[in-house]
């Protein structure tokens, strides 16, 4: 199998970086990045441990602007109730590096942030992240190292926001059915009931 195994071969294969792509990364948020993040209800958080293993990409979402811009170099992402695996937080404590992609429904471009993360539990710091009357018990404080807009090609190819491309939910098994088959812990019906209750009462 042909493969690329070194940096020189990689650059030779893909050619010279376009001038705009080469220069677009900023060391801090500008007004356009801040505005985009304020509109974003959804992000994907990527982390890895200190050895570059245990790689994880985790979806995070809430009302637009749930990821708070503390200043031009700092973000605060609240942790809402989940399954308590805390894969991302384990990696952050072990390694610290984070990569984030912000999405805004209806806009094909995205914003990418790379930096260093810290798991914080300070109540005063987290108070502005209150939602549905509840202040999160933890959050991810991100010191930004670079930020840039990513072009729309991937989402255009995917027709990501095109409603005509949406899959009928009934065409795919429920999450309870899938997990029940994968884990053998409980029936699909019981798993679906547990998940439905979590969606109703444990979002915050």
Number of E strands: 7
Helix/strand structural class: alpha+beta
Q: Remind me, CATH topology of the largest domain?
A: Pnp Oxidase, Chain A
User: Percentage of helical residues?
Assistant: 25-40%
Number of helices: 8
Mean pLDDT: 96
Distance between the termini: 49 Å
**Helix/strand order:** HHHEEEEHEEHEHHH
User: What ranges have pLDDT less than 50 throughout 5 or more consecutive residues?
Assistant: none
List the strand order in the largest sheet: 2-1-5-6-7-4-3
CATH class annotation of the largest domain: Mainly Beta
Strand content: 25-35%
CATH superfamily of the largest domain: Electron Transport, Fmn-binding Protein, Chain A
Task: Quickly give the CATH architecture of the largest domain.
Answer: Roll
């Amino acid at each position: 199998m042909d493969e690329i195994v070194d940096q020189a071969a990689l650059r030779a294969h893909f050619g010279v970086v376009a001038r705009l792509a080469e220069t677009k990364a900023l060391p801090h948020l500008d007004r356009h990045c801040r505005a985009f993040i304020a509109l974003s209800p959804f992000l994907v958080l990527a982390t890895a441990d200190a050895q570059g293993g245990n790689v994880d990409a985790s979806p995070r979402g809430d009302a637009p602007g749930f990821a708070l811009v503390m200043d031009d170099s700092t973000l605060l992402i609240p942790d809402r109730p989940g399954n308590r695996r805390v894969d991302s937080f384990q990696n952050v404590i072990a390694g610290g590096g984070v990569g984030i992609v912000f999405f805004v429904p209806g806009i094909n471009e995205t914003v990418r942030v790379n930096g260093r993360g810290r798991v914080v539990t300070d109540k005063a710091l987290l108070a502005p992240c209150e939602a549905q009357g509840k202040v999160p018990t933890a959050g991810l404080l991100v010191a930004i190292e670079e930020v840039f807009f990513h072009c729309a090609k991937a989402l255009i190819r995917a027709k990501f926001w095109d409603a005509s491309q949406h899959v009928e939910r009934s065409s795919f098994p429920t999450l309870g059915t899938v997990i029940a088959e994968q884990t053998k812990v409980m029936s699909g019906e019981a798993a679906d009931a547990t998940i439905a209750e979590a969606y109703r009462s444990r979002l915050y």
